[in-house]
Amino acid sequence: MDDNNPNVNLGFLVSDVARLLRVRFNATAQKLGLTLAQARVVVHLSRNEGISQVALSAILEVQPITLLRQIDHLERAGLVVRRVHPTDRRMQQLFLTPASQPLLQQIFDVGTDLHFDAMTGLDAAQRAQLIAALSHVRANLAQAPAQVAAGSDNG
């Protein structure tokens, strides 16, 4: 395999696929009145209700001030509400409102359609193999920093 060829290099392929997924999602998300960034906030909040802005910004890998603007927009739209933390008045927790639930379902529907489009031409076994292989690569990379640190201690 020629790792210098961007058509077969893992990093280039994964990056290109991620970029194309973002472009396709953005085109559809605009019809929902959202940006991809806002849709990501809604989805992650659905999985982490009550999370702080700082913790959510870490999950999303954005600066807290960037997230603040997105939260402000979603709050004005009636999709997100901030509540004071019960034991730390300096911290606010983020929650979705009931009005966000239909939108959340639409976001998931867009994702399902995009997933279907991306996997067109692959049979069930190929789809399962692709997901398993990418999951394995992710696991390898997730544990790599610990292994690198352990290896540097031996040198």
Give me some keywords for this one.
155 residues, mainly alpha, three-stranded antiparallel beta sheet, 6 helices
Helix content: 55-70%
Beta content comes to 5-15%
User: Helix-strand pattern, N to C?
Assistant: HHEHHEEHH
Helix tally?
A: 6
Alpha-carbon Rg, integer: 19 Å
Mean pLDDT level: 88
DSSP strand count: 3
Structural class: mainly alpha
What distance separates the N and C termini?
A: 31 Å
Strand order of the largest sheet: 1-3-2
Main β-sheet, in a few words?
Answer: 3 strands, antiparallel
Enumerate the spans where pLDDT stays under 50 for 5 or more consecutive residues: none
Dominant shape: globular
Question: Can you summarize this structure?
Answer:
This protein is mainly α. The protein has 6 helices and 3 strands, in the order ααβααββαα.
